[in-house]
Design goal:
Two copies of one chain form a homodimer. Chain A has 230 residues and is an alpha/beta fold. Helix content of chain A is 34%, strand content 18%. The longest helix of chain A is centred in the last third of the chain and has 17 residues.
Chain lengths: 230, 230
């Protein structure tokens, strides 16, 4: 396991691929995971095409989860539980699992501007309930537009509310510095993920009403900029 | 009832008083309501002191609710139901009731950075369930800092997500133009208030973590500015 590597499970989807592109562009080793190895390899080829000198590899999810200290879950809500159940025996104490899932009602055939309620409170807390003790769950990146991530020439104008226990939260907050335009904001305890996840549904509705196909973002106003890492 | 008047029930509280100051400063007739007439009159005196030529009057809530086509509910969550039940017989068809309430867990003795669940989905939908048919409920202003509203010399840097049926929603969106720095954003159907209300709890937590006593706000990024009134 390379200490600066970042694994992205579901890295074949729009948002996971966007993060993979950005992290690879920033010079970090990126491991893309997928349920099927050949899909992970196809996504890897896409990233290599954009970033020829990028350090990027593709594996199936189980394998990918063992190859980085930070494992980002970028799978659709309906595959979240099965994905976590599929990898949890591979996770080691001290690893950080990043939940960027949102319980969009598309999972039950309803619209993407609405959510369903999760017993544990949020996708992030659901993941926390599934992983072994000693594995840290942090919530982040839910509100970041997949399309804007993929436009490498442009900044992604969005704050990232990062929630979880202090030490792993700060590790994930520092990932935001790798993507121009993203700003990490201390989102407090993991339970706050339930609010951050809902904001994504609100943004999806706004994308439709305002016909912004590349996706909107959010900023917290009034925050002392040099203070945002507290 | 004067057609350009704005009634603010609970206008004695920080946020209601802030809106009263801003609307009075913009030249609109403002009616402050309170459970007790003398408290409404005291708040009115405060506004007059800041804005000597302001058109402002104080009444008890029942009376105030009959004096403006737009009635803003700015009462703490624990008084919301009793306030609406107290005025609903006075409301007339076509009046617009603005819900700016947030179900903060302070109502049950827990913290302000958390909320309680509302059966109807949100404060706004709870209000909708209580008012007579023909009265329109619109959700707005939840995320606007009371302290920043009261600093009349400064702009309030915040977007206002306004939710509800089209025609009353647009009437409430136009109120945002009265306050420098506020920008109205079409928040879609009233049910979206459940997300907007939660954002306030998130901002309250951020105010504490970042020690921003004057209060933070939010902006939606990527929105075409000249298009925000769609």
């Amino acid at each position: 396991m390379r200490p600066d590597a970042i694994a992205i499970l579901g890295g074949t989807g729009d948002q996971g691929l966007g993060l993979a592109l950005r992290f690879a562009k920033a010079g970090r080793p990126v491991v893309i995971g997928s349920r099927k190895l050949e899909r992970a390899e196809a996504a890897t080829a896409k990233v290599r095409k954009e970033i020829p000198d990028g350090d990027i590899e593709g594996f199936d999810n189980e394998d990918a989860a063992t190859r980085a200290p930070i494992v980002i879950l970028s799978v659709p809500f309906e595959h979240l539980v099965s994905t976590v159940k599929g990898i949890r025996d591979k996770l080691a104490e001290g690893q950080v699992v990043v939940s960027m899932g949102v319980p969009l009602a598309t999972a039950i055939g309803d619209g993407a501007a609405r959510t369903v309620g999760i017993w544990q409170g949020s996708c992030a807390e659901l993941v926390q309930a599934l992983v072994p003790a000693g594995v840290h769950v942090v919530s982040a990146f839910q509100n970041v537009s997949a399309h804007r991530l993929q436009r490498l020439a442009e900044e992604v104008e969005c704050d990232v509310l990062v929630s979880g226990a202090k030490v792993p939260r700060e590790r994930v907050m520092s990932l935001c510095d790798l993507v121009p335009g993203l700003r990490a904001v201390n989102g407090g305890p993991l339970a706050n993920a339930r609010i951050v996840e809902e904001i994504t549904a609100l943004l999806i509705g706004l994308n439709v009403r305002y016909k912004v196909s590349e996706g909107l973002g959010i900023r917290i106003t009034g925050l002392p900029d040099d203070d945002a890492r507290k």
